[in-house]
Design goal:
single chain; 5 helices; 2 strands; 5% strand; globular; transmembrane helix; membrane; YdcZ; transmembrane; DMT family transporter
């Protein structure tokens, strides 16, 4: 980054890391914002298109403010260099569809696991313009721990959802019979009739509905 050479070597090394951490922290927010945008617009691809247009609207003023020269393709380049835009569309669409299902933590953990596996492959074979770097046992172990973390988080999320569903079923009031004498007393007290499942209890002013599982009939 420009200007970092004016700082001490330790600080110059921490600033890029801090900026990277901040940019990484924005990824789950981006996924949530795009998912909400997709629900508002009615389809994930509309949200992807709008997100990319907003990005373009932000970048163009920056190009003008920084006086960036016009692009030049005189040097040429490999054909696969245009695939970055396709990958961006794929990632944004997957994020806005799956992030709400997996949750912010589960989605980002899965993304990081995929990034680790992809990065190891790119380094090992020197693909996408990266210099070839051998995959060491330490790097493999680190990637395996990340993948294991994704599996643990997903199992924990599924177990937590099942537990909440069991608790919700347990907390529901049990259906009770409503004898004829109770109905007569309720009508005499001016109470509304209800469907099976309402629990009626005697109160100071007559029979009243203690818990209701739905909308009572008039």
């Amino acid at each position: 980054m420009p200007g970092l050479n004016n700082f001490s070597p330790a600080l110059a090394g921490l600033v890029p890391i801090a900026v990277t951490i901040v940019s990484g922290a924005l990824i789950p927010f981006q996924a949530g914002a795009n998912a909400t945008l997709g629900r508002s617009l009615g389809h994930p691809l509309w949200a992807t298109s709008v997100s990319l247009l907003v990005s373009l609207a932000v970048v163009l003023p920056l190009l003008w403010l920084l006086k960036v020269p016009l692009p030049s393709l005189a040097a040429g380049g490999p054909a696969w260099m245009w695939a970055g835009g396709v990958a961006g569309v794929f990632y944004i669409t997957v994020a806005l569809v799956l992030a709400p299902r997996l949750g912010a933590g589960g989605f980002i953990a899965a993304v990081v696991a995929g990034q680790m596996v992809g990065a190891l492959l790119l380094d090992q074979f020197g693909l996408a313009g990266f210099a070839a770097r051998a995959v060491t046992p330490g790097r493999l172990a680190g990637a395996a721990l990340v993948v294991l973390g994704v599996v643990v988080m997903q199992f924990a999320a599924v177990a937590g959802q099942a537990q909440r569903q069991r608790r919700r079923r347990t907390d529901q009031p049990a259906a009770c019979a409503w004898p004829a004498s109770s109905r007569r007393r309720a009508r005499q007290a001016g109470q509304r009739q209800c469907w099976p499942g309402t629990i009626w209890r005697a109160g100071s002013s007559g029979w009243v509905a203690h818990q209701q599982c739905g909308r009572p009939a008039a």
